[in-house]
Amino acid sequence: MPCTYVSRVIRERFDDADILARAVERLTDEQRDEIIYSGTTVRSTNPETLNAVKQFYATEKAKAQAKKKGFFVKEQKQPNGKIVLTVRR
Question: Does residue 3 form part of some domain?
């Protein structure tokens, strides 16, 4: 009996390789196993894992930009999965 294998790979490109590296470090081991990561590109068949990469990338990018402008940044993870940044001078 023939076997059908369907795999849809989703690819995302990001602007900054250093910030992306910090975002990938925040993933769980299981999530890291689900991605292929090189430079500024991430590929995955799991959209939830790719969304986690995008969330962590946005968080790390916002923190980097705020710190660059001299702000102090505090991060809190909410029970619903959202990340809240508090920015102060």
Answer: no
Provide the token pair at 34: 């689900």
Q: How far apart are CA 70 and CA 35, in angstroms?
A: 34
Contact yes or no for 64/73 (Cβ under 8 A): no
Q: Is residue 70 part of a domain?
A: yes
Q: What is the pTM of this model?
A: 0.88
Structural domain tally of the chain?
A: 1
Distances (CA, A) of 29 to 33, 45, 65, 68: 6, 16, 27, 30
Q: What is the pLDDT of residues 34-56, one digit of tens each?
A: 999 999 999 999 999 999 999 99
Residue 7 binned pLDDT confidence (cut-offs 50, 70, 90): confident
Q: Which residues contact 25 (CB under 8 A, 6 or more apart)?
A: none
> Does a structural domain hold residue 4?
no
